[in-house]
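Summary of Year 1 activities. Much of the first year was spent building the evaluation harness for sequence design. The harness presents a backbone, in tokenized form, and records the residue chosen at every position. We chose the following record to illustrate the format because it has been used consistently in internal testing since the harness was completed.
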């Protein structure tokens, strides 16, 4: 059975974010992840309040190993797990330009940073005193006061090395480009392990016409610019078009680059169509790729718009599940 989750971009006030978590739980959403966007409402303050206001939904940050030390993240997520009676998830990303650039943080060695972040968190969640040295981080007699915690780690991965790391070490692999799913799953499946990580598909689901037009937004362009060539080729872009997109973004800005985003790119990147068509596409993808969780973005400033979207997507996922069954 395909589970449903939401990734919240915290463009709304903190109180609305908490209300969104409550509304998501009431709508039957299984997971709510809040992006750690650095200069937006603090992810752990919001998640702590959401934990106190909910009973069932799983909660967690989408964070990175650059803006916060992994030991600090381990303590924060362990606190969230304790406060929510074991409902915490930790989702890791390499760190995008939209988050790191305003703080002038260079995105160096992202695979190593994610790997060490996983290592630090899991060692500390053992409840034991930890002395450990990596290439970028070290611990000396560090021990969490929260004791032992069993917290799933999901890794959002795009490049081949990050996908291989996620396949080898994570409890879940988050993949985002519809046309790239077969290649991403193959890269993440190369690791030899007795089990496989959960397959999690994050999509900018466009089940209404106005949601499709958001594909040419400046935020989406930033995602494309940060994407590896493999994913861009899966969208139908040639090498020359990839270079044009990136050079336009860096030379003329996101608005100019957004003009290069075509309808075909949007349709290759995400699920687009009427609700019943979206259910059929999602059901087919679930069956073909053995997907476990479907994530959708919640990024509207208006609380009611987000809640309406989650209820409608819940219906789409339910219909997709009925088609798979």
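For this record, the design step produced the sequence shown next.
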């Amino acid at each position: 059975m395909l589970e449903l989750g939401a990734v919240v971009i915290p463009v709304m006030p903190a109180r609305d974010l908490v209300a969104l978590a409550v509304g998501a739980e009431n709508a039957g959403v299984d997971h709510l992840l809040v992006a750690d966007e650095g200069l937006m409402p603090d992810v752990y303050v919001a998640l702590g309040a959401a934990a106190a206001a909910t009973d069932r939904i799983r909660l967690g940050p989408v964070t990175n190993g650059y803006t916060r030390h992994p030991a600090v993240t381990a303590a924060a997520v362990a606190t969230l797990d304790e406060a929510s009676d074991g409902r915490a998830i930790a989702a890791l990303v390499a760190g995008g330009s939209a988050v790191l650039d305003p703080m002038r943080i260079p995105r160096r060695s992202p695979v190593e940073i994610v790997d060490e972040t996983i290592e630090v968190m899991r060692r500390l969640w053992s409840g034991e005193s930890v002395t450990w040295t990596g290439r970028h981080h070290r611990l000396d007699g560090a021990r969490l006061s929260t004791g032992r915690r069993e917290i799933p780690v999901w890794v959002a991965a795009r490049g081949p090395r990050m996908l291989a790391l996620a396949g080898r070490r994570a409890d879940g692999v988050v993949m985002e480009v519809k046309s790239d799913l077969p290649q991403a799953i193959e890269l993440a499946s190369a690791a030899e392990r007795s089990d496989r990580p959960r397959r999690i598909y994050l999509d900018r689901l466009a089940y209404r016409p106005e949601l499709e037009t958001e594909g040419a937004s400046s935020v989406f362009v930033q995602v494309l610019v940060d994407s590896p060539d493999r994913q861009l080729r899966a969208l139908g872009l040639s090498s020359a078009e990839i270079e044009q997109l990136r050079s336009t973004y860096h030379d003329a800005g996101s608005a100019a680059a957004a003009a290069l985003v075509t309808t075909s790119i949007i349709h290759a990147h995400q699920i687009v169509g009427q609700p019943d068509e979206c259910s059929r596409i999602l059901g087919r993808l679930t069956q073909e790729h053995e997907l476990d969780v479907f994530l959708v973005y919640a990024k509207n400033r208006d609380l009611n718009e987000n809640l309406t979207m989650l209820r409608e997507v819940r219906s789409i996922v339910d219909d997709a599940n009925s088609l798979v069954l």
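The two ends are 8 Å apart (CA to CA). Quantitative recovery figures across the full test set are reported in Table 2.
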